[in-house]
Amino acid sequence: MKSSRYTGAMPTPLLMIEDDARLAQMVSDYLAQSGFEVTHAPDGEQGLEQLPLVQPELVILDLMMPGIDGLEVCRRIRALPGDTARVPIIMLTAKGDPMDRIIGLELGADDYLPKPFEPRELLARMRAVMRRRGEGAPGSVQRSTPVMRFGSLEIDRDARTVTVGGNACELTSYQFDLLVAMAERAGRVLTRDQIMEAVRGRELEAFDRSIDVHIGRIRNAIEADSKEPRRILTVRGVGYVFARQQE
C-alpha cells in the first residue's frame, strides 16, 4: 500500500511495518500531506522484503506483530550490509514498557513512540531524526562542518563517520549526533536532559534514561575499554562530560 497526495517535489520514501492496517492508512494519509510516500508492510517478513525495494529514508516499526516482532526486525536491519543497516528507525510500542524501549534502543532504534500517538508527534519525531541524519526530509539542509579531532578519534560531520586510529566505528544516526553534540561541548559537564535537548531540540521526560543506553553503545564503539572510559566520562549524580584532551 502506498499513499501520496503531495504535489511538490519528489516525495520522500518511508517504510511502515505495522500489522494494524487502519493505523497504517491513517499515518500514510497524514504524512502524504507533508511530502512523504509510505509503503506499508503488514508484518516483519514482508517489511524486510520491502526494505531493499523501497530504499526508505526512515522506517516506522511496530514492536508487537505476528511472526517476527519489531525487536527482531530491528536486529536484522542493523545486521544488513552497507548503508541499509543505518536507516533511521522509529519504533512504535503499544504499552510504552521501559524495558521494551531500552531493548529497542540497544538493538539500534533511533527513537520510540508509545501508542496511542498523535500523527503530528510522529511527524515531529521523524523530522528530528531525519534532520540529524542531514538528508531525506523535505526542505532539509545539511550543515557543512570540519572534522573534529580528539587524539586518535576523528568525527567527520560532513561524511557522518567516526574513526578511532583510522578504524571505522559503527553508530546509529542518533548516536552519531549525540556524540557530535557532546564533542561540541567538550570539557563541559552535561546533564542527561541537556544532552538530549541538544540533539533533539525539545524537552524530554526528566526520568527518561534512554541516554544511558546510547552512551553505553557509543562507548563500546569508541573506547579502548568501555568499562574504563577515557573519552566520555560519567560525573556521578550529574551526567557526562566529553574529555577535551584524549589520546
Provide structural commentary.
The protein is an alpha/beta fold and 247 residues long. Helices cover 37% and strands 21% of the residues. The protein has 8 helices and 13 strands. The protein has helices spanning 21-32, 44-54, 70-78, 98-107, 119-133, 173-184, 192-200, 210-222; strands spanning 2-3, 12-17, 36-41, 58-62, 89-93, 111-114, 147-150, 153-156, 161-164, 167-168, 189-191, 232-235, 239-242. The strands form 3 sheets. A 6-stranded mixed β-sheet has the order 1-3-2-4-5-6, with helices on both faces. Strand 8 and strand 9 form a beta hairpin. Helix 2 (44-54) packs parallel to helix 3 (70-78), helix 4 (98-107) packs parallel to helix 8 (210-222) and helix 6 (173-184) packs across helix 8 (210-222). The longest helix is centred in the middle third of the chain and has 15 residues, at 119-133. The radius of gyration is 18 Å and the shape is elongated. The chain starts with a strand and ends in a 5-residue tail after the last strand. Mean pLDDT is 83; it is low at 3-8, 135-145 and 201-208.
